[in-house]
Amino acid sequence: MNWNSLNFSPIMGEKLTHDNTLSLDFTAGNQALETVNLSDTSEFDRFVFAQLEEAGKKYGIGGYLEKRAIYRRSDNFLTEAEAYRNIHLGVDVWTRAGAPVFVPLAGKVHSFQDNSGFGNYGATIILQHDLGGKPLFSLYGHLALRDLDGLEVGKEFRPGDLLCHVGPFPENGDWPPHLHFQLMWDLGDYWGDYPGVAAEKDLEFYQENCPDPNGLLRFRYK
């Protein structure tokens, strides 16, 4: 897909650059994670935002196909060894709760729901876009619950329209505030939900179905 051919609006209302955004590492290679009780969301929150404050950045970013160590915090991911889900399929934008999130491409609401529970998405919205006859779906997770009020399936949005807000914990699935942004070519039978983390045995399928969201975000990693 030639993402550069698309006209899109910045998802956070401004471009993500190295002036305002810090790349974050949640792999096992980041030994600082060993000092954090990830099951304590307040402690996890302080760990994330201390990094942003120290760097003088508004946003943290990362995660596409990242093999993460942070999912040990929730039983949602701790299944049998061969099915352990720890490979992230979207991009996370970590920022303060209440931050507005804008529509990158023209589209309409496909589905939405509150995926409640510790470690889940919390409030989630999925948009459907038309790329010259080819459908593309975008998922926005860990939102404020109030963003679901009055929302309707089929509601249309233009690029740059306000869609939602980054939610606070615990209503956002009990995570430090961030937006989970993910793209999918095919939703299958999912409604208001789609796996955001994959097991290594399923990665080939999900990597094909979930293109790199940075095609739209266009943050240049160093």
Number of helices: 3
CATH superfamily: Glucose Permease (Domain IIA)
| Biggest beta sheet attributes | 8 strands, mixed
Task: Calculate the mean pLDDT score and round it.
Answer: 91
Strand content: 25-35%
Distance linking N and C termini: 23 Å
Oligomer: single chain
> What is the ordering of alpha helices and beta strands?
EHEEEEEEEEEEEHH
Report Rg.
Answer: 16 Å
Instruction: Find the count of extended strands (DSSP E, 2+ residues).
Output: 12
| Coarse shape | globular
Structural class: alpha+beta
Q: Share of helix among residues? A: 10-25%
What is the CATH architecture term? Distorted Sandwich
Domains counted in the coordinates: how many? 1
The first-level CATH class name? Mainly Beta
> What are the low-pLDDT stretches, counting only 5+ consecutive residues below 50?
none
Look up the CATH topology.
Glucose Permease (Domain IIA)
Strand order of the largest sheet: 1-2-4-11-8-7-6-9
What does this structure look like?
With 222 residues, the protein is α+β, with helices and mostly antiparallel strands. It has a single domain (17-217), classed as Glucose Permease (Domain IIA), CATH 2.70.70. It contains 3 helices and 12 strands. An 8-stranded mixed sheet has the order 1-2-4-11-8-7-6-9, with helices on one face. Strands 3-12 form a two-stranded antiparallel sheet. A two-stranded antiparallel ribbon has the order 5-10. Strand 1 (21-23), helix 1 (41-55) and strand 2 (59-62) form a beta-alpha-beta unit. The longest helix is centred in the first third of the chain and has 15 residues, at 41-55. The model has no long low-confidence stretch (mean pLDDT 91).
